[in-house]
Fold:
Amino acid sequence: MDPERSVFLPATRDEALNRLSDFLEESAGKYADTRNHVLPGHGNVSRLSTATRTRLLLESEICEAAREKFSAGKIEKFEQEIWWRLYWKGWLELRPSIWTDYINDLSRLEWNDRATEVAAGRSGVAMMDHFAKELIETGYLHNHARMWWASFWIHIERLPWQLGADFFQRHLLDGDAASNTLSWRWVAGLQTRGKSYLVRRSNLERYVEADLLSANSQGLSRLENPSPAPGLDFEEHPNCGSVPLCEDPALLPAEGLGIWIHDEDLLLEKSPLAGLHPKALLAPRPRTLWEQHNYSDRKREFLTHALSDGTSRAGSHFDLVSGISNADDLGEALVTGAKENGLSAIVAMQPFTGPLTDELPRLTSALEKADVSLHLIRRDEDTEAMQRATAGFFGFWKKTSALRERLPL
Ligand SMILES: Cc1cc2nc3c(=O)[nH]c(=O)nc-3n(C[C@H](O)[C@H](O)[C@H](O)COP(=O)(O)OP(=O)(O)OC[C@H]3O[C@@H](n4cnc5c(N)ncnc54)[C@H](O)[C@@H]3O)c2cc1C
Structure:
């Protein structure tokens, strides 16, 4: 791939703040009109998704900075996109069986030769092959390219959506259990009644930059008359739970407390944990978990870099020595860290439904055996927003308006 096309994705808070400021200066004012276009370099969109995924930046910070520069009307489309992330997070948190079913499906589905060829960028439809290679080589794809490629996989190639979603999760640096799984389900037609998303040649002709498309025109005729893959019917998923309530940080043990830092929230200095007085910071890099999920080398490097950045900022904030460690087993790493530092309790930001949450039962049991308690805390605004993800996005947008006006808290 042409190196000019590689996309720089923020992996530290400073990089994310710079990207935000450049984006607001150069592209945000035109975002509503230009965001759907797939252009080399992707300068028309923010490329902040790695920052929101790891909470190098908070959604509320991004929206506040945007509002300082633009009127609410001018920036509404961008703000809505920012809030889609929490909407999906809440939607999955209220229906966690969708995630469990997806993980179970993955364990029984097999990659056949065709799936392997398509994911390697050898389908014969040059534009789709370009996107597959772009994903592997940069860890990023534009939203429209994600929609087209997912639709190509499901409705043209007729491959199982779960394997396509897994391919994305392995490579996307912003890979997020909720946004990814639920977007794939939406493309497949499982998520919204009567709707599946079909990739069409005419849509590519409208939105892909002309030179890029003409260099990748081979095989486009396969996208001329798409029809939905059979057997993918809308599934009713009433919300079956509530967003788990977290503990009050004020009630945490004052003595012998350590903080577990993980890649789902790397902004501890601006979190409900900021006022605590921990004895130690534990930042295990969960190598085995990443291996189990087949994360690409690029993704592991990115997550390590972001974890180091969050840990070093937390070290400065809490005035503690900090550094990341390698963990073959997360539970064991936390137990060892607790023993080495004389901890009787560990607190962390509560992970969202996804791979880390799946680890919690094993982790809690390992800690209990070592007489160490685990406490999970969530930002109030996350809980408040996610509880409102009961139906469609625009209802959620309405129901969160008072909350959004109050932010940043
Ligand atoms: C099949 C498929 C899989 C996807 N998988 C992921 C994923 O694993 N992780 C992920 O963060 N996004 C995912 N998305 C959503 C979206 O494509 C990316 O968030 C967006 O392309 C990131 O690029 P950006 O930061 O330049 O976006 P911008 O257009 O600049 O948007 C700003 C921010 O809004 C949020 N956002 C924008 N669109 C969406 C959306 N549709 N859903 C949720 N959040 C959104 C992101 O945090 C993004 O950084 C997926 C979409 C599809 C169709």
The first helix runs from residue 13 to 26.
